[in-house]
């Protein structure tokens, strides 16, 4: 393998960043657990193929974001002292791992491959998957891409919430069972609010760069201090959603996720107390990811135990 191939391969995996696939894996596992509780079996091949398709969309979305944020200047405006694991996208172009053209090519190839996987599932397994998959794919692509640039126009948070909550849970469930309901979509709500909160708190390290690059997300619009209140409210909405699920299904195991409330309170306090101390502030970013993992595990258990 030549030096260029090694560079591109390393850049591809830096761009793919599998450790953040937890955001899509959690709702898909919840959907699969719900399907297993319903039918007492899982079609492993279809489940694995759906995972591959979603991960390809993740990579394509990352590539589109990387391309657009570099061109707009957002990633280039992140100064060396502000760089951290939660800032400046995947940094593949900034680090010289990928060129703009290579990033664009990765975006096209992965998104086209994801489309054909979704089409195959819709034709051979469950037609309803196509509409759900297309909705999620469009939101993922136009999260950064013109003409919509949702995350530049204050709609990125809503797009993330819809995609990583109700759409992914419902999509996995309907693929495995052939059934859809509003209750299944509602089960995605706690995940939705927490994933939006991950996006929200991760916008803090890039706050100044986003302003310079014209990214008008809601944190830029309302400011960092008011943003902490939104951070707290999003956590509250996640836990209220768990109460809602208990009320809808009378399954008490949905309340297991509420055991993470002390972690959420601590994360909010950490963020509020360290607005001007980025290294200390980043503990809130890490805590929010941990809360998603713990609530996700609790929801998988609730899906299985509640039948």
Q: Could you characterize the architecture of this molecule?
A:
The protein has 307 residues and is an all-alpha fold. The chain has one domain: Farnesyl Diphosphate Synthase (Orthogonal Bundle), CATH 1.10.600. 72% of the residues lie in helices and 0% in strands. It contains 13 helices and no strands. It has helices spanning 3-16, 22-39, 44-72, 100-124, 128-141, 156-177, 182-187, 189-202, 207-212, 218-222, 224-249, 261-273, 278-305. α2 packs parallel to α13 (278-305), α3 packs antiparallel against α4 (100-124) and α11 (224-249) packs antiparallel against α12 (261-273). The longest helix has 29 residues, at 44-72. It is a multi-pass membrane protein. Pathway: Quinol/quinone metabolism; menaquinone biosynthesis.
Write the SSE topology.
Layout: H1 3-16, H2 22-39, H3 44-72, H4 100-124, H5 128-141, H6 156-177, H7 182-187, H8 189-202, H9 207-212, H10 218-222, H11 224-249, H12 261-273, H13 278-305
Helix pairs in contact: 2-3, 2-6, 2-13, 3-4, 4-5, 5-6, 6-8, 8-11, 8-13, 11-12, 12-13
GO molecular function: prenyltransferase activity
Organism: Cohnella lubricantis
GO biological process, one term: vitamin K biosynthetic process
Number of helices: 13
CATH class category name: Mainly Alpha
CA-CA gap between termini = 51 Å
Q: How many beta-strand elements?
A: 0
Low-pLDDT residue spans: none
Q: Which class do the helix and strand fractions yield?
A: mainly alpha
User: What Rg, in angstroms, do the CA atoms define?
Assistant: 19 Å
Transmembrane segments: 20-37, 98-122, 128-146, 158-176, 182-205, 226-247, 284-305
Pfam families: UbiA
Organism: Cohnella lubricantis
Keywords: Membrane, Menaquinone biosynthesis, Transferase, Transmembrane, Transmembrane helix
């Amino acid at each position: 393998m030549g030096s260029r191939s090694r560079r591109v391969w390393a850049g591809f995996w830096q761009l793919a960043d599998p450790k953040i696939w937890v955001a899509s894996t959690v709702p898909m596992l919840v959907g699969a657990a719900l399907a297993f509780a319903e039918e007492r079996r899982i079609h492993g091949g279809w489940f694995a193929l759906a995972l591959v398709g979603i991960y390809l969309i993740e990579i394509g979305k990352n590539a589109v974001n990387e391309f657009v944020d570099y061109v707009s200047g957002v990633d280039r405006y992140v100064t060396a002292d502000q760089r951290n694991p939660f800032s400046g996208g995947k940094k593949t172009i900034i680090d010289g791992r990928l060129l703009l053209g290579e990033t664009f090519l990765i975006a096209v190839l992965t998104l086209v491959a994801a489309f054909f996987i979704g089409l195959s599932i819709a034709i051979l397994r469950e037609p309803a998957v196509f509409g759900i998959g297309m909705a999620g794919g469009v939101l993922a692509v136009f999260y950064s891409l013109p003409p919509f640039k949702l995350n530049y126009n204050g709609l990125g948070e809503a797009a993330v919430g819809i995609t990583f909550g109700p759409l992914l849970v419902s999509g996995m469930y309907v693929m495995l069972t052939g059934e859809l309901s509003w209750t299944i979509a509602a089960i995605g709500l706690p995940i939705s609010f927490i994933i939006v909160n991950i996006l929200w708190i991760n916008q803090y390290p890039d706050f100044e760069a986003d302003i310079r690059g014209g990214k008008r997300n809601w944190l830029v619009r309302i400011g960092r201090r008011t943003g902490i209140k939104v951070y707290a409210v999003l956590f509250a909405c996640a836990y209220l959603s768990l109460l809602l699920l208990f009320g809808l299904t009378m399954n008490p195991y949905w309340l297991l996720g509420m055991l993470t409330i002390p972690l959420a309170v601590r994360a909010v306090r950490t963020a509020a107390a360290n607005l001007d101390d980025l290294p200390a502030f980043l503990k809130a970013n890490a805590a929010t990811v941990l809360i998603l993992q713990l609530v996700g595990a609790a929801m998988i258990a609730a899906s299985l135990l509640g039948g």
